[in-house]
Amino acid sequence: MATARILVAVATGLLIAGCGGGSTFANRPRPPTVVDLTVNVTNQRVMVSPASVGLGPLEVFVTNEASRTATLMLLEPHGGVLADTGPLNPQSTAHFTVAPKTRGTYALTAGARSGIRPASLSIGPPRGSGDSALLEP
Predict the structure, then answer these.
(1) How far, in Å, CA of 65 to CA of 68, rounded?
(2) Are the C-beta atoms of 96 and 82 separated by less than 8 Å?
(3) Region of residue 104 (phi > 0: left; psi between -120 and 50: alpha; otherwise: beta)
(4) Which domains are seen in the chain, by residue range?
(5) Per-residue 3-state assignment (H helix, E strand, C coil) for the chain
């Protein structure tokens, strides 16, 4: 009777140990962590901080401190619109997430007719993997 229990225990252990052993898991690096950009629109100019980041995902937080409605646009180096906030009332905020695909100097503008001086955002080499970043909720 004791021998039967030992054989059942050994068989169960071998069965459990063999589960999942044949799978192949591609251990790909995680994408870069998201970098937060803060953008302020005033009556005179657009300001961005930080003004230089590596290539990877960005979360852009915009505050319109101007006295009139503005639409913040993120323009690619060749002039195409990568993202925009839509009309943003005075003293309002907005945010958007974007992942530029190319390196270069991007413009943050409140529109050509606004009279507000645009800001420049320099996108450099790709940021490293987020593998070592602490996972947070």
Answers:
(1) 9
(2) no
(3) left
(4) 35-125 (2.60.40.420)
(5) CHHHHHHHHHHHHHHHHHCCCCCCCCCCCCCCCCEEEEEEECCCEEEEECCEEEECCEEEEEEECCCCCECCEEECCCCCEEEECCCECCCEEEEEEECCCCCEEEEEECCCCCCCECEEEEEEEECCCCCCCCCCC
Name the one residue in this structure whose structure tokens are 């309002």.
92
Token look-up 């229990």 returns 5
Name the amino acid, one letter, at 58.
L
List per-residue pLDDT tens for the chain, 137 residues long.
677 777 667 777 666 666 655 566 677 777 888 999 999 999 999 999 999 999 999 999 999 999 999 999 999 999 899 999 999 999 999 999 999 999 999 999 998 788 899 999 999 999 887 776 666 65
Phi and psi at residue 31, to the nearest 5°: -65, 165
As a whole number of angstroms, the distance between CA 80 and CA 73 comes to: 10
Q: Specify the pTM.
A: 0.74
